[in-house]
Every structure is written in C-alpha cells, then in structure tokens.
Design goal:
196 residues, mainly beta, five-stranded mixed sheet, four-stranded mixed sheet
Length: 196
C-alpha cells in the first residue's frame, strides 16, 4: 500500500499549506499489511512520516482508513489518509454423495476447507430436495455431518441434496450439491415357526 503526503513551505509558519493524497490496496484477509508513505518537502530533504495503523499492523477484514502525517525540520505538519481493503479468504465446501434406505437414518457429510487447510468450528446447513434438514459443525478435519431420516414413503432413486456455509467476517461463503440415492428398505430375514 502506498500513499503520498506533501508539505509546502511558506514564508510564515501560520500560512503553511497542508496537502495529502491517498490510494487503495487489497491484501489477504485479517493479516498484516505493509504501508509505504512518501513525504516530500521543498525545504527539507528528510521529513518524517508516521501512519496509524502502522505498517505491518494486523488489519481487520473490511475497509480501514489509514491516517498519516509528515513533519519537516521546521515543525510543520501535513496530514493525509487512504483506505486499505482486506478481503475475506475464499472457502471450498465439498458435499459427498450419499445412499439411504426408506425409514432409516443416513449421514450427510460435507468438508469445508480454505486452500488446502480444513476449517473447524463453522456451521454448515444441509438440505434435501431443496428443504432444510439440519446443520452440522465442522470438526478439526473440516467435516460436518447431519443425520437425515429418510421418510418411509420417499421416492426411490436419486434426490438432490445441498450443503451451504454462510461465511464469516474472515471467510467467504461457499456451497455444494450432490445426490442422495434412496433405496427400498431391505427385507430382514425372519424366523418362521411351522406347527407340527
């Protein structure tokens, strides 16, 4: 991030002129951002520039205004400001295909990652055929699960399922779709007693 603050010397200190210009930069979310300020002065080769937040500070996600000032050898001060915009990090949500039997519970499973790293402690919402069926919280491996009871009268075959992560101040939202294959309830073998 770079900005310029200039000072123009005048014959009388009471009439010195202050001017400033700013810029905008983008960096990784919620991390330190380097800020470079160039101060120039017609009568001083080395005016001192200071910014708040300072260069290398941890900036929050969103837009932060950086306030800068420059002081020359005569004690004259010029001020300026610019904004730093920090974007949330992109996430990827992967929803697994699933198979379930009528009248039985099946697990819906989704994995949330940021780059190659799993994201834990975040809420994932699950849906079946467009209808919400529950939520799960991602574990240390980034996996969230939701137990879904397949209705006994559910249509056999493939049904669309979905998973969605709403995002946070530091992470972008993401979603995915997959297929739930519904099969008929397996017939359990029973014991038949035939009287003599």
């Amino acid at each position: 991030v770079a900005g310029d603050v200039s000072v123009q010397d005048t014959p009388a200190p009471s009439r010195h002129r202050r001017a400033g210009s700013g810029g905008r930069a983008e960096g990784p979310a919620c991390s330190s951002v380097g800020v470079t300020v160039t101060a120039t002065d017609a009568g001083d080769a080395g005016p001192i520039g200071v910014c708040t937040p300072a260069s290398g500070s941890l900036f929050p996600c969103g837009t932060t205004t950086v306030q800068c000032s420059a002081t020359d050898g005569a004690g004259q001060v010029a001020t300026g400001s610019f904004t730093v915009t920090v974007r949330p990090r992109a996430t990827t949500l992967h929803l697994d295909d699933a198979t379930g039997s009528r009248g039985a519970t099946t697990q819906l499973r989704a994995t949330l990652t940021q780059g190659a790293a799993p994201v834990s402690g975040e809420t994932v919402s699950f849906s079946v055929d467009g209808h919400p069926v529950g939520t799960g919280t991602t574990a240390a491996d980034g996996v969230a699960t939701c137990a879904y009871l397949v209705p006994v009268d559910a249509a056999l075959g493939d049904t669309p399922i979905g998973a969605a992560y709403a995002g946070s101040a530091a992470l972008d939202p993401s979603s995915d779709a997959a297929t739930l294959t519904i099969i008929d309830t397996p017939v359990r073998p029973g014991l038949t007693i035939v009287p003599d």
